[in-house]
Design goal:
alpha/beta; 9 strands; 292 residues; globular; seven-stranded mixed sheet; 13 helices
């Protein structure tokens, strides 16, 4: 019953033009920021660390980020419930598409790494219209939201894999078939599934799955994100190749590449995400040195 009501609300909201949804989202962003002290504090703390000594830049990115986070919520009905051809029609440009085509020609599979930057939902839909892709996702705690989320994402040639052993197995199998997979590389993994690596100068527990997938399959690795264009004009997609070397741990190279990508569009990153949390059961960074 609740899932049906939410679906109806999403369908009704999806009828609004994208510029109006983004305008409403900008207002929603400020409302969330003013009413949720914990959310606002984490956003400020994460940004302040990145822009130490650059107060004017910090304020500019913070205010823009407040608006962009609201837009990221209000655009979901449009992305998930509008006809797929209308959604993909909002993609105004693709930068680095030649890297995607080159990776497809190799035939070893493709690992798309899409951080919490811009509209990451539209990236997977764009790719699924062109190739089979298995997306790893973490089901929300609210069952009714999971229903809406799955129906919005399972379009084109998309398959969904849960963040568990069965999901990891599905990712390996997809790459073995020469297909594409997609992950959120800045999502905090569970204990034993990551290692500590610098992320904007602070230790962050970083998934090791990306390195294992790339090494075992020989697949091409591409960073991707969907930049939200001003005034609801649509989206610009970006694809950048990432090659791991033997010079440093993969987790460190991954975070360095993510930093570079995020700095291209810092106002659209999810700075309110608790990226630096210690997963349950994991040893905090530096603890071994203190106790040993």
């Amino acid at each position: 019953m609740r899932a049906n009501l939410v679906t109806w609300l999403f369908d009704a909201t999806a009828r609004l033009p994208l510029p109006i949804l983004h305008g409403l989202g900008a207002m929603l962003g400020w409302l969330m920021y003013l009413l949720d002290a914990k959310y606002a504090r984490r956003m400020r703390e994460n940004l302040a660390h990145v822009y130490q000594g650059a107060e004017e830049k910090f304020r500019h990115v913070l205010h823009a980020n407040v608006r962009e986070m609201g837009k990221s919520i209000c655009e979901l009905p449009y992305i998930w419930r509008r006809p797929l051809d209308q959604v993909l029609g909002k993609v105004q440009s693709c930068h680095g598409l030649e890297h995607v085509e080159a990776a497809r020609q190799r035939g070893r599979g493709i690992i798309f790494l899409t951080p919490h930057l811009g509209c990451f939902e539209i990236v997977s839909l764009y790719l699924a219209a062109r190739m089979p892709i298995t997306i790893m996702y973490r089901p929300p705690k609210l069952g009714w939201l999971d229903t809406v989320m799955r129906s919005g994402r399972l379009r084109g040639q998309t398959k969904l894999a849960r963040t568990d052993v069965s999901g990891v197995r599905a990712m390996f199998k997809a790459l073995k078939r020469g297909e594409a997979i997609g992950l959120l590389p800045d999502q905090v993994p569970g204990n034993g599934e990551g290692e500590w690596a610098p992320f904007f100068g602070r230790p962050a527990y970083t998934m090791t799955l990306v390195g294992r997938l790339a090494e075992s399959s020989g697949a091409s690795v591409l960073l991707s994100f969907g930049e939200r264009l001003p005034r609801g004009a649509g989206y610009a997609l970006h694809f950048t190749p990432l090659e791991f070397t033997q010079d440093a741990p993969v987790a460190m190279q991954l975070n360095a590449a993510l930093e570079k990508t995020i700095r291209e569009c810092p106002a659209q990153y999810l700075w309110s995400y608790n990226r630096y949390k210690v997963p349950a059961g994991a040893q905090p960074p530096g603890e071994k040195e203190k106790t040993g």
